[in-house]
Design goal:
Layout lengths: L1 E7 L5 H14 L4 E7 L10 H17 L6 E11 L2 H13 L4 E6 L7 H6 L2 E4 L7 H19 L7
Parallel strand pairs: 1-2, 1-4, 3-4, 3-5
């Protein structure tokens, strides 16, 4: 399986980079992992609705340019469906079984995702109703994907 984690913005925090590197390494025995970052649109702190939409649209164009037609796309959004780790594992296992071997997880920028990305998505996933820094979500997502592969393979992993 080929897992692509597609994120907006460059990761700067060393502690997050270290965690991401660790889980990417662990996942290497289960799947091919690609981490793709697209540049975030520079914008002032206070934006009106129309300007926010413009920023999200520009980021969406960069995101959509990186997604192939054959990809199964799962976008992380607060309003998405929440799952247990076991449900995520079962879903990934099902995708592999039925030939959907390229899965793209999308994490938007600080303003979220434009509707065009959500329309392209096959699934909307939420980790919580709380807001997390999008850079931190990359690490959390990688840990959950690793956990899913451990579950799929019947391997022990802490609960």
């Amino acid at each position: 399986m080929n897992i692509i984690i597609l994120t907006v913005g460059k990761l700067k925090e060393k502690y997050l980079k270290m965690g991401i590197e660790e889980f990417t390494k662990r996942l290497g025995s289960y799947a091919k992992i690609d981490l793709i970052e697209v540049t975030d649109e520079k914008a002032p702190e206070s934006l009106g609705e129309a300007d926010m939409e413009i920023v999200k649209k520009k980021e969406a164009e960069r995101i959509l340019a990186k997604i192939g037609a054959d990809a199964y796309v799962i976008s992380l959004v607060i309003e998405g469906k929440m799952k247990t780790s076991e449900q995520l594992a079962a879903d990934l296992d099902s995708l592999m079984t039925y030939g959907r071997s390229k899965v793209v997880f999308v994490i938007g920028g600080s303003l979220g995702l434009h509707d065009s990305v959500m329309t392209r998505s096959d699934e909307l996933l939420s980790f919580s109703k709380m807001t997390f820094p999008h850079q931190m979500m990359k690490l959390i997502l990688l840990e959950q994907v690793y956990r899913a592969f451990r579950i799929i393979n019947g391997a022990p992993y802490h609960k």
